Write the structure tokens for this entry.
Amino acid sequence: MFADPLVVRSGRLVLATLAIALLPASRALASTGPLVQAMVVGSSGQVIAGPRSVNASATTVAVGRKRCAVAAGTPLAVLADLHGPSFAVRDYGRCGSSASNSASLFVYDLAGESNSGRNGWEYKVGGLAGSTGAADTSGAEGNSRLLGSGTRVLWFYCHAAAGGCQRTLALSAPASVSHGSRVTVHVTGYDNEGHGIPIAGAIVTLGSDFASTNSAGNAVLIAPSGHGSYSLSARRRGLVPAFPQTIAVR
């Protein structure tokens, strides 16, 4: 998946021709992108950046002595707009002033964690791993669909195995509950292809209460006694934590 100098990505073999560090991104391109939810998770499962809303706006990145355009609505534009951890790319194509030539920009280091062998940085859009480069203008799945507003974009450090990367978690719970009531939460783990299974042993937390999911991926929590908005989270060792969900307690 991350071999060098030959990079294998989603079944495509690309000859590595150039390797350079990415300097801070420029927002020189004015195109405003969609408002998406973004999160970055490191190799040990720690959340490095986000989750927060960002505009995946068009930008440029400095690659050596040249600047390479990155189109709005791409996962690389999301990463640049986070303005958080530093990252670096290699260019396996001929990036330049046209975003259409940036399809082969490849993130190999993020927050000081570099790709190693088959392990390294991946992105997912709504639970599904991208099949194209992070700046590819054909969209994450090569279907000409760029990111839409409200989409969740996850960058995470993939520990590759025979079945792909480790699963990424997702939460399902009511958006609003009564104070002090019992809240049933479901946790699903998604593989690279977006196939989900119930996850047992995940720790879910709401306010001061927490519980572990059963074999069906369910856990029951007690809603806080105070009115307001509370964050619901889920994590399990060896898997990528879920985007938190906000629950209104009335």
